Amino acid sequence: MKSRLCIRTSFPLRLLLLINAFTRAQLIDIEIPPMTSQTLPPLPDLFQLNQTQWATEDSKWFERDAISQAPDLIEALANVAYLANSIDDDTSSATFGWQNGGVYRSDTAYVNNVLNARLMEPLRTLSWAYTLNKPWNPYYHNAILGTRLVAVLEYWLKIQSSNGGYTEASNIGTAAAAPTTFSLQLLVDMMDELVQDNTLDTDLLNRLLTGVTKGAELCVTDQGFIDTGNRVSNQYVAIFYILWRLWQITGDTKWQTYYNNGLDAWLADAQPAPFWTENYGNEALGYSRITEWILDRLYAINGDARILESFRRYFDWCGLHVLPENDGLTFITDVVGNGRTSAPAQFGENGYYGHITKYLTTCHAWNIVYMMTEAERQQRINDWRANPIPPTGAHPGKSKAAHIYSNWPMYFEPDGLTSITPTQQQAAVADLPTAPGKPNFTRYFSQPTTIASYLFMRRDTCYVTIHFGGRSNATEAKELGIIWFPGFGTFLRGTQANIAYAYTTRVGTLSTFKEEIKDFAIPSSWAPTSDGSVQADDDLAFTTRFANVNVTKTYHINNEGFSVTTLPGAAATEQIPLYIASTDKLIIDGGVEQNVVPGIALNGQTFKIKRQTGSSFTTASLTFSRPINGTFSAGYQIAQGNIRPFSVTLVASQGLMYTFSLDA
């Protein structure tokens, strides 16, 4: 049975607001300076970096900066005035309180849209600075900041649709999942801070509560929002944090019911396979970090076992498509099935948190940015206290650094930062499913929500990922994702972002890139199990025809390697994106070693890549069934080398087989 949560909630918010209304004047006396014009007075930049301010009891606040060696907390403080002054501060303006400074999502389509709630997100910092009573925060209860914060909240509520939603578009009354959940998760925290602080107008805080609850009701009852959440995880998952916080803050068990039922339904629909869905594809490790961070943040405050299990499945998925190179510290990600992006962090680092690493050792493999010994960790903290890391310099066209919004969880939640040791990291790498000594397997996932299928095959000498499914010309691509050899590393890496770097067959202006593959079926002897695994003892051969380009392809894997046979109906080009490490050498038909140089025509039948692996060398081969003509193109940099697409000429109606293999 799935775990369902029930807790004793905090003092009900409505009653607290009522008490606050009577006691506010006795708690604090703030004099708001009179305005001599219709423009709010600007907030002066008050922050000065002074290491003597940092008390030992505040170590959880600054140790993130110390351990990550990035000035996130410091930049938050250094940007408070910049953010506060980025709003429309003309009290007679229809957009009074709107963030119009271009500090976030500053392209023209966004920055000119007065209804776009996404523009308001960085202003979350203002309530944090206004309510945080620390000697190193000069903005605590600052009167000018308070007036600007009120203007921000009033405008944020003003642009809320009547049904409780928010929009990124310019249509009045429209609402979408992403701007709604992103705004609400910020507003619910701002509301909690300000109610506990007890200095702003009770009527405003009551309206803020009404706005948050109305929006939360919309997210859990509107089928359109729910469908979006099942398809695009990071745009919806914040609703569960919002529901939990409303339950925690108000004591109303309605939010408990919404939370429990909604989370069960979302996990069933948005994570039927181990990955979280993202725009009909999968959310790759390090893509947006939103899903990972929100769920980790939620688990940190409620310990819901369902969330931990969701993470466990997700990191199992990462072990199938985030592959280590021989150093165990460099990773290359299969992005062919990604629904949104081609460039997740190559090492899979999710930077916004380290908390989940306390509970799941499987994620240690990719947590290399925060990898250090305990002595190194303490030394970084000591060094920071002696010499805090200052804010970064101004970016072009900005008066301050441009990080503004993206790192705000690091300084709004003083939970420290969980680091791991090199021993822990290497132990996790050694436990990955592709690691030497691990058993062979085949895992196949296909489900309606993503309209995509994923095949992962481990054999004695090779590991291959292949992507099938529908949605012609969708964001995600098809065919080969990665070919990887134990003891050698990545040999081929496809992409879904740019056909110039993809694995594909090109026929004139047409290609197999992103074309549908709907005729794959798991052999009957490979009966799927509940976790998506299937029997892996047999070879696999599969043929499909790309009707739009008149190309037939056969894929075949066994313990000796992986091969493809391509039969084009017309003259074509086979584009094979090989990963070439910076010290790799190319050997053609047993000839001399040479560098891989883009743009030079090559002739041969067997193309070996010689790679240094520790103190020795390992070779892998790309062997064709007949001599071919081919050319490497420039490609792009990744990991410790480059992707170099190898283009091979194909003759009409003549099949060409080529095999990827690890040499003995």
Structural commentary:
This is Alginate lyase domain-containing protein. It comes from Dactylellina haptotyla (strain CBS 200.50) (Nematode-trapping fungus). The chain is an alpha+beta fold. Helix content is 31%, strand content 21%. The chain is built from 17 helices and 22 strands. A hairpin with a 3-residue loop joins strand 8 and strand 9. Helix 6 runs parallel beside helix 8.
CATH topology heading of the domain at 441-662:
Beta-galactosidase, Chain A, domain 5
Strand content: 15-25%
Taking the sheet with the most strands, its summary is: 12 strands, antiparallel
Helix content: 25-40%
CATH architecture of the domain at 441-662: Distorted Sandwich
Radius of gyration: 28 Å
Q: Which parts are unreliable, with pLDDT below 50 for 5 consecutive residues or more?
A: 1-11, 21-32, 347-352
* Overall spatial form: globular
Mean pLDDT: 86
Per DSSP, the total helix count is 17
CATH class assignment of the domain at 441-662: Mainly Beta
Strand tally, please? 22
* Overall SS class: alpha+beta
Short description:
By secondary structure, the protein is α+β, with helices and mostly antiparallel strands.
Supply the key terms.
664 residues; alpha+beta; Beta-galactosidase, Chain A, domain 5; 12-stranded antiparallel beta sheet; 6-stranded antiparallel beta sheet; 17 helices; 22 strands; 21% strand; globular; disordered N terminus; signal
